[in-house]
Design brief:
493 residues; ten-stranded mixed β-sheet; 24 strands; 2 domains; Immunoglobulin-like; TIM Barrel; 21% helix; alpha/beta
Length: 493
C-alpha cells in the first residue's frame, strides 16, 4: 500500500489523467475477486440516507434514522462511529461533539483543554447522553454553519425541556450507540463508517476492535451491514478480528491501488468514492471505476453534495452513470426522483403509488404472471429436486439440533439409490461434528419424497455462522442441493 500523502488528492489526479485520456481504469490483468456475499449486488438503485439525511433531520440520531426509513424513502442507512472513554461504540460524525450538539467547544482552538476534554473519546456514554444532538440542527441547512438566528425545531427535546413528537422519545435526539441502531433496525441495510481521526490513527483502530466485537455477536448481520473506513488499517484490523463478517467497503487508500489494477483486500462488496473530483475540470468517478467494479462484481455507492434546488438532474446523472446507490443528504428528494423515474425499491417492490402495482409471482413449479400461471414440465433427465431445509436457525453451542431436507422425485419415472449428504465448509468444520454425513434411499416413485434427518453436534465453543449444505445425487436423475445458514449462539454458562 502506498504511503498516504493525501490519498484523495493522488486518486483524484490519477482519475483526472484517465479522464483526460478518455480511458477507463487500467485492465487489471488478474483473476476477478468476487464479493464474499451477493446481498448488495443485482439490486435496483439504493436511496442511502447519509447520516440519516442530515439536511432533513438531526445528523446520526435515531430520529433521523427512523424518519428516513419510515417517512422519507430511504432504503439504507449510513452512519459514522467513534469509541467513548468507557469503550462504547457510538454513532456520530465528529470527534468534537460541539459541532452537532450543545457541548462546549465552539470557537476554541483544537488544542484547547475544554475542547479536548469534551471529545467523544474523553467522555463516557452517560456523559454524552446528557447532550442535545439536535441542538444545532436547522431544516435544509443541517448542523454545520451554525447560526443562533436560524430555526431549531428539535432543540430541547433531548434534555426534556420540550416534548418529543408523537411516536418518538427524548433518547431519539441524543447520541445513539451502534447496538441501539442494530436493535431498532433489524431488517434495514446499514453502512457504518469507522471514522479516521487524522491526529491520532489509534482512534479508528480502537473503533475497529469494538465494532468487530459487536458484529461477531450479530452474525445474522454479516451480509447487510457494510463496515467502511476511508483508511485501510482499520478495515484490515476489523477483518482480522471478525473474519466471518462478509460485507466490507473498499477503503479510499486501497482504491488508489485498485485503479492501477491491484485487487482490493480484504475483498469488499462495494467501492464508495465521491461522485466527482473538481480538479478542475470536474472528473466523474463512476464511468472510470465501473469497468473495474463490473469485472470483480462490486457495487459502486457514491457520495456528494445534494443541490439545494432542482436536484433531479444531479440524481439522474448518478443513476445514468451506473452507480448502484447514492449517500444522500436529502433522502426525501431522492425518493421523489426515483419514484417519478420509475425506479423501484432494491428488491423490486413499489417505491410509491405512482409506480405500477407489484407483479405477483407464480408459485414454485409454475411460470408466467399470476393469475395466468402454467405448470413447468419437469425434465425427465433431471428429475431430482431438493426443495428445502428445516431446523433451528439460531441454535446454541453445545446442543445437537436436527435438520430435515426434503428431496422429491419430480420426474415421470422412478429413481433408485438416491444419496443425500450433509456438507459443512472446511473453514467452519471446527465448529461442528456430524455423526452421520450421508444416507441413502431405495426406490422413490414419480412425485415421491424422501425426508432424511441429520443431527448436527455443535461444539461448546462454536459461535457465528455455519453453512449447512445438503447435496442429493442419483445416477439416473442427476443431482441437486439446498443449503441453510445458521447463526450459532454461545453456550449457556
Amino acid at each position: 500500500m502506498r504511503k498516504r500523502f493525501s490519498t484523495a488528492t493522488v486518486l483524484a489526479l490519477l482519475l483526472g489523467a484517465l479522464f483526460a485520456a478518455d480511458a477507463p481504469a487500467a485492465d487489471p490483468n488478474r483473476p476477478a475477486t468476487p464479493p464474499p456475499t451477493d446481498f448488495w449486488q443485482n439490486k435496483n438503485f439504493m436511496n442511502m440516507a447519509h447520516q440519516g439525511g442530515e439536511l432533513e433531520a438531526p445528523s446520526n440520531t435515531l430520529y433521523a434514522f427512523k424518519t428516513a426509513v419510515t417517512f422519507r424513502g430511504a432504503d439504507t442507512l449510513e452512519m459514522d462511529g467513534y469509541v467513548t472513554e468507557d469503550g462504547v461504540f457510538v454513532v456520530t460524525h465528529d470527534m468534537d461533539p460541539y459541532k452537532t450538539s450543545n457541548a462546549p467547544g465552539e470557537g476554541l482552538p483544537a488544542d484547547d483543554p475544554v475542547r479536548l476534554d469534551n471529545q467523544i473519546r474523553n467522555q463516557t456514554l452517560a456523559e454524552l447522553k446528557t447532550l442535545d444532538f439536535a441542538y444545532k440542527y436547522s431544516p435544509g441547512k443541517g448542523q454545520y454553519g451554525y447560526d443562533p438566528a436560524d430555526p431549531h425545531p428539535f432543540r430541547g427535546i433531548a434534555t426534556g425541556d420540550v416534548d418529543p413528537p408523537k411516536g418518538f422519545t427524548a433518547n431519539d435526539f441524543r447520541i445513539a450507540t451502534f447496538e441501539e441502531v442494530l436493535e431498532a433496525f433489524p431488517d434495514t441495510p446499514i453502512n457504518i463508517d469507522m471514522k479516521n481521526y487524522s491526529p491520532d490513527p489509534a482512534v479508528a483502530l480502537n473503533a475497529a476492535e469494538k465494532l468487530a466485537a459487536i458484529m461477531n455477536a450479530h452474525p445474522e448481520r454479516s451480509d447487510d451491514v457494510i463496515v467502511a473506513s476511508f483508511a485501510q488499517q482499520p478495515l484490515e484490523k476489523f477483518h482480522g478480528l471478525a473474519p466471518e463478517h462478509r460485507a466490507l467497503s473498499g477503503s479510499e487508500d486501497a482504491t488508489l491501488d485498485y485503479v492501477t489494477g491491484a485487487p482490493l483486500t480484504p475483498t469488499p462488496v462495494a467501492v464508495q468514492p465521491p461522485d466527482s473530483f473538481n480538479l478542475p475540470p470536474v472528473v466523474r468517478t463512476v464511468p472510470i471505476l465501473k469497468p473495474l467494479t463490473d469485472y470483480d462484481g462490486f457495487a459502486i455507492h457514491v457520495w456528494g453534495d445534494d443541490p439545494a434546488t432542482n436536484p433531479d438532474p444531479f440524481y439522474e446523472k448518478i443513476v445514468d452513470e451506473g452507480a448502484d446507490g447514492y449517500f444522500t443528504q436529502r433522502p426525501s428528494a431522492l425518493h421523489q426522483y426515483l419514484c417519478e423515474a420509475g425506479i423501484r425499491r432494491p428488491d423490486g417492490s413499489q417505491r410509491c403509488a405512482l409506480q405500477a402495482p407489484d407483479v405477483v409471482p407464480c408459485p414454485d413449479g409454475t411460470e408466467g404472471e399470476a393469475p395466468t400461471c402454467t405448470p413447468i414440465l419437469p425434465d425427465p433427465e433431471a428429475a431430482l429436486k431438493v426443495h428445502s431445509v428445516t431446523g433451528k436457525a439460531k441454535p446454541r453451542a453445545g446442543r445437537s439440533p436436527g435438520y430435515r431436507v426434503l428431496v422429491q422425485n419430480v420426474g415421470d419415472a422412478a429413481m433408485d439409490g438416491t444419496k443425500v449428504c450433509l456438507v459443512v465448509p472446511k473453514q467452519q468444520r471446527h465448529k461442528v461434528r456430524l455423526p452421520r454425513r450421508c444416507t441413502r434411499t431405495r426406490v422413490v416413485g414419480p412425485g415421491g419424497v424422501f425426508n432424511p434427518r441429520f443431527k448436527v453436534e455443535l461444539k461448546k465453543k462454536a459461535k457465528g455462522a455455519v453453512k449447512l449444505a445438503f447435496r442429493a445425487t442419483t445416477a439416473a436423475a442427476g443431482d441437486d442441493q439446498a443449503s441453510m445458514r445458521i447463526a450459532v449462539k454461545p453456550a449457556r454458562r
